[in-house]
Amino acid sequence: MSAKDQDSAVRPGAVRVEVTAPVASVAFSGRGPGNIVSRSLMEDLVRELEALDQDAAVRCIVLAGSPTSFCSGVEVSELEQTAVLDPGRESYLECWDRVGKVAKPVVAAVSGPAIGAGFELALACDLIVAGESASFGFDQLDLGVIPGAGGTQRLARSVGRHRALDLLLTGRRLNGSEAMEFGLVARVWPDEVLVKHARLLARVIAEKAPLAVKAAKESVLEAEELDFEAGLVYERKLLGSLFSTADQKEGMKAFRDGRKPSFEGK
Predict the structure, then answer these.
(1) 10 with 27: CB under 8 angstroms?
(2) CA 5 – CA 248 distance, rounded (Å)
(3) What pTM does this model have?
(4) Which range (9-13, 74-78, 155-159, 235-239) has the least confidence?
(5) In the chain, what are the domains?
(6) C-beta separation of 58 from 40 below 8 A
(7) Angle at 159 between CA 46 and CA 67, to 5 degrees
(8) For residue 9, pLDDT beyond 80
(9) In angstroms, rounded to a whole number, what is the distance separating the alpha carbons of residues 187 and 179?
(10) Which residues fall within 8 angstroms of residue 79, CB to CB, at 6 or more apart?
(11) With 0-12 CB in 10 A as exposed, 13-18 as middle and 19+ as buried, what is 33?
(12) What is the distance between the alpha carbons of residues 100 and 142, in angstroms, rounded to a whole number?
Protein backbone atom coordinates (compact mmCIF):
# COMPACT_ATOMS: atom_id res chain seq x y z
CA MET A 1 0.00 0.00 0.00
CA SER A 2 1.37 3.42 -0.91
CA ALA A 3 1.96 6.22 1.57
CA LYS A 4 -0.85 8.11 -0.13
CA ASP A 5 -3.24 5.22 0.43
CA GLN A 6 -2.12 4.86 4.04
CA ASP A 7 -2.90 8.50 4.75
CA SER A 8 -6.29 8.49 3.02
CA ALA A 9 -9.41 9.02 5.07
CA VAL A 10 -10.71 6.10 7.09
CA ARG A 11 -14.33 5.23 6.37
CA PRO A 12 -16.70 6.49 9.11
CA GLY A 13 -17.02 4.21 12.12
CA ALA A 14 -13.86 2.31 11.25
CA VAL A 15 -10.37 1.75 12.57
CA ARG A 16 -7.52 1.31 10.10
CA VAL A 17 -4.28 -0.44 11.05
CA GLU A 18 -1.10 -0.37 8.99
CA VAL A 19 1.98 -2.25 10.16
CA THR A 20 5.37 -1.41 8.76
CA ALA A 21 7.43 -3.32 11.29
CA PRO A 22 8.49 -2.36 13.85
CA VAL A 23 5.95 0.51 13.81
CA ALA A 24 2.16 0.21 13.64
CA SER A 25 -0.04 3.13 12.57
CA VAL A 26 -3.64 3.22 13.78
CA ALA A 27 -6.23 5.73 12.57
CA PHE A 28 -9.90 5.95 13.56
CA SER A 29 -12.82 7.73 11.94
CA GLY A 30 -15.85 8.83 13.89
CA ARG A 31 -18.87 10.95 13.03
CA GLY A 32 -18.67 14.30 11.28
CA PRO A 33 -15.87 16.84 11.02
CA GLY A 34 -15.24 16.64 14.77
CA ASN A 35 -14.44 12.91 14.54
CA ILE A 36 -16.91 12.09 17.32
CA VAL A 37 -16.43 8.55 18.65
CA SER A 38 -19.18 6.12 19.51
CA ARG A 39 -19.01 3.36 22.09
CA SER A 40 -18.62 0.72 19.40
CA LEU A 41 -15.81 2.64 17.71
CA MET A 42 -13.92 3.02 20.99
CA GLU A 43 -14.27 -0.69 21.69
CA ASP A 44 -12.98 -1.52 18.20
CA LEU A 45 -10.08 0.88 18.64
CA VAL A 46 -9.07 -0.64 21.96
CA ARG A 47 -9.24 -4.18 20.58
CA GLU A 48 -6.91 -3.20 17.74
CA LEU A 49 -4.43 -1.57 20.11
CA GLU A 50 -4.45 -4.60 22.41
CA ALA A 51 -3.89 -6.92 19.46
CA LEU A 52 -0.89 -4.85 18.36
CA ASP A 53 0.40 -4.99 21.92
CA GLN A 54 0.58 -8.78 21.50
CA ASP A 55 2.16 -8.63 18.02
CA ALA A 56 5.87 -9.46 18.32
CA ALA A 57 6.62 -7.58 15.09
CA VAL A 58 5.36 -4.28 16.56
CA ARG A 59 7.44 -2.26 19.00
CA CYS A 60 5.76 1.16 18.90
CA ILE A 61 2.29 2.41 17.89
CA VAL A 62 1.19 5.73 16.37
CA LEU A 63 -2.44 6.69 17.00
CA ALA A 64 -4.15 9.33 14.86
CA GLY A 65 -7.66 10.54 14.22
CA SER A 66 -8.66 12.25 11.00
CA PRO A 67 -6.40 14.82 9.28
CA THR A 68 -8.67 17.65 10.47
CA SER A 69 -9.68 16.42 13.92
CA PHE A 70 -8.10 14.01 16.36
CA CYS A 71 -11.35 13.64 18.30
CA SER A 72 -13.84 16.19 19.63
CA GLY A 73 -15.52 13.86 22.10
CA VAL A 74 -18.09 11.10 22.37
CA GLU A 75 -21.68 10.79 21.23
CA VAL A 76 -23.68 12.83 23.76
CA SER A 77 -26.81 10.83 22.94
CA GLU A 78 -25.05 7.69 24.19
CA LEU A 79 -24.04 9.46 27.39
CA GLU A 80 -27.63 10.49 28.03
CA GLN A 81 -28.98 6.97 27.61
CA THR A 82 -26.96 5.29 30.34
CA ALA A 83 -26.45 6.18 33.99
CA VAL A 84 -22.83 6.49 35.04
CA LEU A 85 -22.93 3.65 37.54
CA ASP A 86 -24.46 1.14 35.15
CA PRO A 87 -22.07 -1.77 34.48
CA GLY A 88 -22.18 -1.05 30.76
CA ARG A 89 -21.09 2.54 31.28
CA GLU A 90 -18.21 1.46 33.50
CA SER A 91 -16.90 -0.85 30.78
CA TYR A 92 -17.26 1.98 28.24
CA LEU A 93 -15.14 4.36 30.31
CA GLU A 94 -12.63 1.59 30.87
CA CYS A 95 -11.80 1.74 27.16
CA TRP A 96 -9.65 4.78 27.93
CA ASP A 97 -8.03 2.91 30.84
CA ARG A 98 -7.21 0.02 28.52
CA VAL A 99 -5.44 2.39 26.13
CA GLY A 100 -3.28 3.52 29.05
CA LYS A 101 -2.48 -0.10 29.91
CA VAL A 102 -1.02 -0.98 26.50
CA ALA A 103 2.54 -2.02 27.38
CA LYS A 104 4.16 -0.82 24.15
CA PRO A 105 4.68 2.91 23.68
CA VAL A 106 1.73 4.67 22.05
CA VAL A 107 2.32 8.02 20.35
CA ALA A 108 -0.77 10.20 19.81
CA ALA A 109 -0.46 12.30 16.64
CA VAL A 110 -2.96 15.14 17.14
CA SER A 111 -4.07 17.44 14.35
CA GLY A 112 -7.13 19.62 14.82
CA PRO A 113 -9.21 19.41 18.01
CA ALA A 114 -8.59 16.97 20.85
CA ILE A 115 -11.51 18.03 23.01
CA GLY A 116 -13.30 16.38 25.93
CA ALA A 117 -13.02 12.61 25.66
CA GLY A 118 -10.69 13.15 22.71
CA PHE A 119 -8.28 15.00 24.99
CA GLU A 120 -8.65 12.14 27.48
CA LEU A 121 -7.73 9.68 24.72
CA ALA A 122 -4.58 11.64 23.88
CA LEU A 123 -3.67 11.82 27.58
CA ALA A 124 -4.00 8.04 27.86
CA CYS A 125 -1.18 7.67 25.33
CA ASP A 126 2.49 7.82 26.30
CA LEU A 127 3.57 10.72 24.10
CA ILE A 128 1.58 13.43 22.37
CA VAL A 129 2.90 15.10 19.24
CA ALA A 130 0.86 17.84 17.64
CA GLY A 131 0.25 19.52 14.33
CA GLU A 132 0.08 23.29 14.13
CA SER A 133 -3.73 23.08 13.93
CA ALA A 134 -4.02 21.08 17.17
CA SER A 135 -6.10 22.32 20.08
CA PHE A 136 -6.66 20.73 23.49
CA GLY A 137 -9.36 21.33 26.06
CA PHE A 138 -12.22 20.01 28.17
CA ASP A 139 -15.85 20.95 27.53
CA GLN A 140 -17.61 18.53 29.88
CA LEU A 141 -18.53 21.17 32.46
CA ASP A 142 -20.68 22.83 29.80
CA LEU A 143 -22.69 19.60 29.71
CA GLY A 144 -23.12 19.55 33.48
CA VAL A 145 -20.60 16.74 34.03
CA ILE A 146 -16.85 16.28 34.43
CA PRO A 147 -14.31 14.21 32.51
CA GLY A 148 -14.78 10.57 33.52
CA ALA A 149 -12.28 8.67 31.38
CA GLY A 150 -9.21 9.63 33.39
CA GLY A 151 -9.03 13.25 32.29
CA THR A 152 -8.88 14.92 35.71
CA GLN A 153 -6.33 12.41 37.00
CA ARG A 154 -3.99 12.33 34.01
CA LEU A 155 -4.16 16.07 33.45
CA ALA A 156 -3.31 16.91 37.07
CA ARG A 157 -0.40 14.46 36.99
CA SER A 158 0.85 16.01 33.76
CA VAL A 159 0.59 19.74 34.46
CA GLY A 160 -0.08 20.12 38.18
CA ARG A 161 -3.17 21.10 40.17
CA HIS A 162 -3.39 24.81 39.31
CA ARG A 163 -2.96 24.48 35.56
CA ALA A 164 -5.29 21.47 35.52
CA LEU A 165 -8.02 23.43 37.29
CA ASP A 166 -7.51 26.38 34.97
CA LEU A 167 -8.16 24.16 31.94
CA LEU A 168 -10.99 22.18 33.52
CA LEU A 169 -12.94 25.01 35.14
CA THR A 170 -12.70 27.55 32.32
CA GLY A 171 -12.80 25.28 29.29
CA ARG A 172 -9.71 27.09 28.02
CA ARG A 173 -8.22 25.60 24.87
CA LEU A 174 -4.50 25.29 24.21
CA ASN A 175 -2.90 25.23 20.80
CA GLY A 176 0.00 22.90 20.11
CA SER A 177 2.72 25.33 21.15
CA GLU A 178 0.89 26.27 24.37
CA ALA A 179 0.33 22.58 25.13
CA MET A 180 4.06 21.99 24.70
CA GLU A 181 4.79 24.84 27.15
CA PHE A 182 2.41 23.15 29.60
CA GLY A 183 4.34 19.88 29.25
CA LEU A 184 1.46 18.07 27.55
CA VAL A 185 2.98 17.84 24.07
CA ALA A 186 6.46 16.59 23.21
CA ARG A 187 6.85 17.98 19.66
CA VAL A 188 4.95 20.29 17.30
CA TRP A 189 5.20 19.94 13.51
CA PRO A 190 3.32 21.33 10.50
CA ASP A 191 0.12 19.38 9.89
CA GLU A 192 1.22 18.09 6.52
CA VAL A 193 4.21 16.24 7.99
CA LEU A 194 2.77 15.36 11.41
CA VAL A 195 2.01 11.68 10.82
CA LYS A 196 5.23 11.17 8.86
CA HIS A 197 7.32 12.62 11.68
CA ALA A 198 5.30 10.75 14.31
CA ARG A 199 6.15 7.51 12.52
CA LEU A 200 9.82 8.47 12.36
CA LEU A 201 9.76 9.22 16.08
CA ALA A 202 8.08 5.86 16.70
CA ARG A 203 10.80 4.14 14.66
CA VAL A 204 13.50 5.75 16.82
CA ILE A 205 11.75 4.35 19.90
CA ALA A 206 11.24 0.97 18.24
CA GLU A 207 14.95 0.63 17.57
CA LYS A 208 15.76 0.73 21.29
CA ALA A 209 15.91 -2.44 23.40
CA PRO A 210 12.22 -3.46 23.75
CA LEU A 211 12.50 -4.73 27.32
CA ALA A 212 14.32 -1.57 28.36
CA VAL A 213 11.66 0.57 26.66
CA LYS A 214 8.95 -1.32 28.54
CA ALA A 215 10.83 -0.92 31.84
CA ALA A 216 11.40 2.81 31.26
CA LYS A 217 7.70 3.36 30.59
CA GLU A 218 6.73 1.30 33.62
CA SER A 219 9.15 3.17 35.87
CA VAL A 220 7.89 6.59 34.78
CA LEU A 221 4.26 5.57 35.29
CA GLU A 222 5.07 4.26 38.77
CA ALA A 223 6.73 7.60 39.55
CA GLU A 224 3.24 9.11 39.47
CA GLU A 225 2.08 6.74 42.19
CA LEU A 226 5.11 6.31 44.49
CA ASP A 227 7.01 8.74 46.68
CA PHE A 228 10.56 9.54 45.56
CA GLU A 229 12.37 6.99 47.72
CA ALA A 230 9.99 4.18 46.79
CA GLY A 231 10.34 5.22 43.17
CA LEU A 232 14.12 4.89 43.36
CA VAL A 233 13.77 1.38 44.77
CA TYR A 234 11.38 0.45 41.98
CA GLU A 235 13.63 1.94 39.30
CA ARG A 236 16.66 0.02 40.54
CA LYS A 237 14.69 -3.20 40.73
CA LEU A 238 13.79 -2.80 37.05
CA LEU A 239 17.38 -1.92 36.18
CA GLY A 240 18.63 -5.05 37.92
CA SER A 241 16.15 -7.23 36.05
CA LEU A 242 17.48 -5.99 32.71
CA PHE A 243 20.99 -7.25 33.43
CA SER A 244 19.74 -10.79 32.94
CA THR A 245 18.50 -10.11 29.40
CA ALA A 246 20.13 -10.94 26.09
CA ASP A 247 19.39 -7.40 24.91
CA GLN A 248 21.52 -5.93 27.71
CA LYS A 249 24.43 -8.10 26.68
CA GLU A 250 23.93 -7.26 23.01
CA GLY A 251 23.63 -3.53 23.69
CA MET A 252 26.82 -3.31 25.72
CA LYS A 253 28.76 -5.57 23.36
CA ALA A 254 27.64 -3.49 20.38
CA PHE A 255 28.80 -0.36 22.20
CA ARG A 256 32.23 -1.90 22.75
CA ASP A 257 32.37 -3.06 19.12
CA GLY A 258 31.36 0.35 17.78
CA ARG A 259 28.34 -0.99 15.90
CA LYS A 260 24.56 -0.63 15.96
CA PRO A 261 22.92 -3.15 18.31
CA SER A 262 20.43 -5.73 17.11
CA PHE A 263 17.78 -6.19 19.78
CA GLU A 264 15.36 -9.13 19.91
CA GLY A 265 13.34 -8.29 23.00
CA LYS A 266 14.85 -11.14 25.01
Answers:
(1) yes
(2) 38
(3) 0.89
(4) 9-13
(5) 3-206 (3.90.226.10), 210-257 (1.10.12.10)
(6) no
(7) 45
(8) no
(9) 10
(10) 143, 145
(11) exposed
(12) 26
